[in-house]
Design brief:
This protein is α/β, with parallel strands linked by helices. It folds into two domains: 132 residues, Aspartate Aminotransferase, domain 1; 238 residues, Aspartate Aminotransferase, domain 2, CATH 3.40.640. It is built from 14 helices and twelve strands. The protein has a seven-stranded mixed beta sheet, with helices on both faces. It has a three-stranded antiparallel beta sheet with strand order 9-12-11. Strands 1-10 form a two-stranded parallel ribbon. The mean pLDDT is 96. This is Aminotransferase. One of its GO terms (molecular function) is transaminase activity. Pfam families: Aminotran_1_2.
């Protein structure tokens, strides 16, 4: 067995979801919405299964979807993409990430990562032979600083794996922070792989700024998107990869020998969905922002110090000011077993030097689900 994977612990998501089932808890841990997703998009997929082509589609993705991706990003982010040479469809963003890392890392290359981080990042980097250089972000603002980047970048830096908007913090990085990161990438001659799956799940008037729009990064960046996140259907696993032709040539070869292709019916439906009216995307954001605000208000009234969240499905609270003498992991264990609410300890997203006071809640739920969770939590100040 491969020792890297054989020695990995059970993920915190699996652990907390199991405890949620055992204790019939409200699960605000794993990040998926309560509803099944937009009906018209699902109907397009069903029609394509019954009446369409169900054999191998093109390895790079259906032309229909590749052009829809290019058109969508031109409209929303001002990107000028060649659909034939710079867009590829994958079986989810995680496959896109795995393929990019396998394609672009040689054994011994250093890879800059930002923690807290999505749990797949580090094992994938290590399996590709990369050596992780970790930048530690900390609450309440989770800011990128020149000092932290200077400590992580070295002459051996070959790739940077970045997530914006950022999970689990809900942070949307500023233009200044992004340009600072771009300067380090240029200086080190490093490729930036930018996980932008939350690009549409963004609030408070923020406008997503893609890595491909940053100074000097158009030819050295890989942008990764996700239909599952855009349409709130996390099980669909349809990802988008956008990169300059020189990078795409090797990225496509890695994809060819991972999943090769992605179900054609889902590709047809996603192509349709990306062309939905602008108001649909804005209304979806507004509804999620309303849910965020509902949970934030309830948590604040219950005595939880709520941290800012400008994107994703997640809201964090910092237990440190409460002086509970308990870390985030133990607190989450107590919540699920004693109060019937499951959340995720953010320390699980760190590889080292973890912040151990922050707890993440998912707000992409119905009002009834959020209200039940808040009722069960009670007032944290009263035990």
């Amino acid at each position: 067995m491969n020792t890297l994977f054989a020695n990995l612990p059970t993920t915190v998501f699996e652990t907390m979801s199991r405890l949620a089932r055992e204790h019939q808890a409200v699960n605000l841990g794993q990040g998926f919405p309560d509803d099944p997703g937009p009906l018209d998009v699902r109907e397009k997929a069903a029609q394509a299964v019954v009446h369409g082509w169900n054999q191998y589609p093109p390895m790079m993705g259906l032309p229909e979807l590749r052009h829809a991706v290019a058109d969508h990003y031109r409209h929303w982010q001002g990107l000028d993409l060649d659909a034939e040479a710079e867009v590829m469809i994958t079986s989810g963003a995680t496959e896109a990430l795995a393929g990019a890392l396998l394609a672009l890392i040689e054994p011994g290359d250093e890879v800059v990562l930002f923690q807290p981080l999505y749990d797949a990042y580090l094992p994938l980097v290590q399996r590709a032979g990369g050596v992780a250089r970790l930048v530690r972000l900390a609450p309440p603002y989770w800011e990128l600083t020149e000092e932290a980047l200077s400590a992580a970048f070295t002459p051996k830096t070959r790739l940077v794996l970045f997530n914006n908007p950022h999970n689990p913090t809900g942070r949307v990085f500023s233009r200044g922070e992004l340009e600072l990161l771009a300067a380090f990438c240029r200086r080190s001659d490093a490729v930036l792989v930018s996980d932008e799956v939350w690009e549409h799940v963004i609030f408070d008037g923020h406008i997503h700024q893609s890595c491909l729009s940053l100074p000097g990064l158009r030819e050295r960046s890989v942008k990764i998107g996700s239909a599952g996140k855009i349409f709130g259907m996390t099980g669909w696993k349809v990802g988008f990869v956008c990169a300059a032709p020189g990078l795409m040539k090797v990225l496509s070869k890695a994809h060819q020998f991972l999943t090769f292709t992605t179900p054609p019916a889902l590709q047809h439906a996603v192509a349709y969905g990306l062309g939905k009216p602008r108001d649909w995307f804005l209304d979806t954001r507004a509804e999620l922002q309303r849910s965020r605000d509902r949970l934030a208000l309830g948590l604040s009234q219950a005595g939880f110090p709520v941290l800012p969240s400008s994107a994703t499905y997640f809201l964090n609270v910092d237990l440190a000011p409460l002086a509970l003498n308990i870390d985030d992991a133990a607190f989450c264990q107590q919540m699920v077993t004693q109060r019937g609410v499951a959340a995720i300890p953010v320390s699980a997203f760190y590889a080292q030097e973890a912040v151990r006071s922050v707890v993440r809640f998912c707000f992409a739920k119905t009002d009834a689900t959020l209200d039940l969770a808040l009722a069960r939590l009670g007032d944290v100040r009263h035990g």
